[in-house]
Amino acid sequence: MADDKFNAAFAPKKSGGSPAAAANKAPAKADARSDPKADAKAARKAKKKRSRKVLMLCLLIIAILLGGAGYALYRIGMLDPILVAVGMMPSPEELSIEERQSRLDKLEIEYAARGAALDEREEAVERREKSLRLREEEIERRESAQTSFVDVMTETSPEQLDALKKVSKICNQMSAEDAVGIVQNLANADEIALVVYHMTEEKAAQLLTLLPQVTAAKVLSLIID
């Protein structure tokens, strides 16, 4: 009976292994699983690192903006009272006559350059407005003028008409790409209309497609009317 109890107590387990061996295997299973606390800590660390980068970028942008604004204020002299108060710049009373004159000369040059730039901008705007007015007046003049093709032929001298007919013959013998360069050198749309009128229909159509749309429309309106 005592032997049976002894054997039952110290007999090896069927699962194969002593309690010590089972204890040694337990940490291996624990190592195979990921530690949630370690993962959470790594995630917090990565998030903190990203936040630090974003903060540094924002601070850099703010520093650049503040630096640009400060330099602009310094250039126009608005920071002078502050610089004088903190001792980074001598007050006007402490400057010598030469230094004061030098500052005045620099300010005068800067103001003159700004004035010249403003004058140039105003002149550019005036030129643009003048060009627009001239274009509007030209469009109104063309729209108001009811000149017919018969009037154009009547007002053209016989000598000039003969010359334009010769131009038409020459253009008929050339490619449209070459002829358009000659036609565009004529004085106005009336003369172009006379040249196109005496050309063959095929050559005239090719030529009109190469002319600027405004000129082609004017020529067609004259011939059709």
Structural category is: mainly alpha
**Helix tally?**
11
Q: Spell out the helices and strands N to C.
A: HHHHHHHHHHH
Query: What's the end-to-end separation, in Å?
Result: 137 Å
How many β-strand stretches? 0
Strand content: under 5%
Overall pLDDT level: 76
Percent helix: over 70%
User: Major sheet: size, sense and barrel closure?
Assistant: none
Cα Rg: 47 Å
Q: Which descriptor suits the 3D outline?
A: elongated
Low-confidence stretches: 15-23, 25-32
Written overview of the protein:
With 225 residues, the protein is mostly helical. The protein is built from eleven helices and no strands. It is elongated and about 90 Å long. Mean pLDDT is 76; it is low at 15-23 and 25-32.
Key traits:
mainly alpha; 11 helices; 225 residues
Tell me the layout of helices and strands.
Blueprint: H1 2-10, H2 19-32, H3 36-75, H4 80-85, H5 97-144, H6 149-155, H7 158-172, H8 176-183, H9 189-197, H10 201-210, H11 213-224
Helix pairs in contact: 7-8, 7-9, 8-10, 9-11
Short description:
With 225 residues, the chain is mostly helical.
